[in-house]
Amino acid sequence: MQGDVQARRARWAVAAMFMANGFVMGAWAPQIPLLLPRHGIGESTLGLLILVLGFGAVSAMLFSGRLIARLGGRAVLTIFSLATIPVLPLVVFAPNLWLLTPILVAFGAVVGCMDVAMNAQAVEVERRLHRAIMSSSHGFWSLGGFIGGSAGGFLIAHLGAGQQSLVAAAFAAVLVFGAMPFLLPTTAVAAAAEAPVRHHLLPRDLGLWLLGFMAFFSMVPEGAVLDWAAIYLQKELGSDVFRSGLAFAFFAGAMAVMRFAGDHARNRFGAVRTLRVSGLVGAAGLMGGALAPADWFAIVSFALAGLGVANMVPIMFSAAGNRPGVPSAVGISTVTMVGYSGILVAPASIGYAAEHFGYRPTYATLSLLLVTVALLAAKAADADGLRREEGPVPLPV
Asked: The domain containing residue 322 runs over which residues?
């Protein structure tokens, strides 16, 4: 019974960590345009700086699994969640590009390592509770991102960029310090015992890499809606600025709502069926956006796509964390690294495709990526592996 109490407390500690990570990224978003006048740079240089941050995150994800195996999941999550607190003020107060560039690499690295560690902690909690919590954990990330982005813009307008970054750091610190005492104590010894005797920087499990590319296929459409939906609605459907902005707003809102419902669906129907239906719903939404006769139809379609995409990546993270013969942290770091590469690839590649072939064919093609994930849904069966061994799973209270 005491273990159950510890796991339930850890479940909310994990939620707080996800929310803190999402909040910092949300608070960073309204700061991005301010880098242009502050450092006297153009959009192309800004794009390279954003790419540098993403490169830092994806590169760190490659090593984070081994770091967790060496130090233990709780220690790594504690270290990098603490390191995440000051990164936004460091970016905002950087006096020049020579300092800003390595700070952005460090920003991406600490946020990326925290991302892997908190997902690994979520898998541990799932094992202890014998039920899914991954989707709702990502829902707390979305909620944190929404609060950080919306409150961040308000604070910048009324207090200034520097003060906003300090307030964001203080709020993240409250969440992190409040969660740290309740994390599950995953020791380095336990993590090492789970690992194979011989270590490779890149795991040689082809099924794990397939999960990674399924996550990649799921994240590219997310980046396509984030970066290009507003421009698509303005250029091809005649939307004004307000209505075009609703495309991603409804997509993100639908994702957040569905993520909080996703654990119930997984616990009731299983990961494979949930992933299959999610992929088909997401594909239908993107195809509807591609064929939309008017902007309102596209907005509704992108909201439908958000409902479908919401739980796909969390399911694959759970599957990676329960992959037989692969340490949880290594599996999650590999799938996270490959999956998040989709967010980096999406902006440039989709912009090129849209420029040469048009937005409608581009979104229609992206819907096929989600159909592919739906067809491969059985490859994520390890997300339910623990429950198959230990019997039926009670529905969450």
From this structure: 206-390
Say yes or no: 125 and 210 in one domain: no
Own/partner long-range contacts of 389-392 (Cβ < 8 Å, ≥24 apart): 390/130
The pTM of the full predicted model, rounded to 2 decimals, is 0.79
Q: What digits encode the pLDDT tens for the residues 328-370?
A: 878 888 888 888 887 776 666 777 787 788 889 989 999 999 9
- The angle, 0 to 180 degrees and rounded to 10, between the axes of the packed helices 206-237 and 328-357 is 30
Q: In terms of domains, do 360 and 224 share one? A: yes
Number of domains in the chain: 2
Residues 151 and 171 in one domain: yes
Of 31, 32, 46, 35, nearest to 164 (Cα)? 31
Residues 59 and 75: their CA atoms lie apart, in Å, by: 20
Measured distance CA(53)–CA(112) in Å, rounded: 10
Instruction: Judge if 232 and 262 occupy the same domain.
Output: yes
Cβ atoms within 10 Å, residue 371: 17
Nearest CA to 309 among 379, 369, 359, 243? 369
Q: Which helix (H) or strand (E) holds 161?
A: helix 161-179
